[in-house]
Amino acid sequence: MTDQMPQVNAEFGTTPVIEFPTPEAPKGLKVVELSVHGDPRGWFKENWQRAKMMGLGLPDFGPVQNNISYNATKGVTRGIHAEPWDKYISIAAGEIFGA
User: Fold this and answer.
1) Other CB atoms within 10 Å distance of the CB of residue 46
2) Contact partners, residue 5, CB within 8 Å, separation at least 6
3) Which entry of 8, 58, 71, 91 is 20 to 30 Å from 2 by CA?
């Protein structure tokens, strides 16, 4: 993982873009370009959202949603919203507080 911040998009709700690689690529390979949403706290990216991805023709593999976020400074508050499914949370570095 690098310390470089990815290019961010300030608009939420943008649709992922699926590219179909060249004929030399492995059969069935699809490249999905996802938006990274930034604000002064850092950035957030939705890696998988079942309804969106299946709507684009990708197969379901189980999870409802998978997200990643980066916080630029210590003490940043991020909400884990109250969707009706279980959450799996991990951190790469630092600390986390759950209430």
Assistant:
1) 20
2) 38, 42, 43, 70, 72
3) 58
Own/partner long-range contacts of 17-22 (Cβ < 8 Å, ≥24 apart) = 18/56, 18/57, 18/58
Amino acid in the structure at residue 51: A
Please state, in angstroms and rounded to a whole number, the distance separating the CA atoms of residues 44 and 38.
Answer: 6
| pLDDT tens profile 21-34 | 677 878 777 777 88
| Per-residue tokens: 45 | 């990216």
Strand order across the beta sheet in which 42-49 lies: 36-39, 42-49, 65-71
- 13: closest CA among 40, 41, 34? 34
> Which is nearest to 48 in space by CA: 35, 59, 63?
63
CB count, 10 Å around CB of 96?
Answer: 8
